[in-house]
Design goal:
It is built from three helices and no strands. It is mainly α. It has one domain. α1 runs antiparallel to α2 and α2 packs antiparallel against α3. The protein is elongated and about 50 Å long.
């Protein structure tokens, strides 16, 4: 689980860099780009929290694991909302 979460974080960071490198032509595209970059930042945060949750669980720290998991879920939901909003602009 920890490896998958770390991979998810890495993929989100790569997507964030790739989207940030694009050159939008219109104001709507610029706003969509900003939203998408923010979404992938939230996904990267979620991946880091999921990895921390897995590490805590492997060390027997159930309360810490649950706290990290809830934080990750919140970040992932925020990323989902931002990415959907970005898609609606395009």
């Amino acid at each position: 689980m920890t490896h998958s979460a770390a991979r998810f974080r890495t993929d989100a960071l790569h997507a964030q860099v790739a989207i940030a490198a694009l050159h939008p032509a219109t104001p709507r595209e610029r706003k969509a780009q900003r939203l998408a970059v923010s979404a992938f930042a939230d996904y990267a945060s979620a991946g880091a929290q999921w990895a921390a949750s897995g590490r805590a669980r492997s060390h027997g720290l159930k309360l810490a694991a649950v706290a990290h998991s809830h934080t990750a879920a919140t970040a992932a939901r925020a990323g989902d909302r931002l990415l959907i909003a970005a898609g609606r602009l395009l």
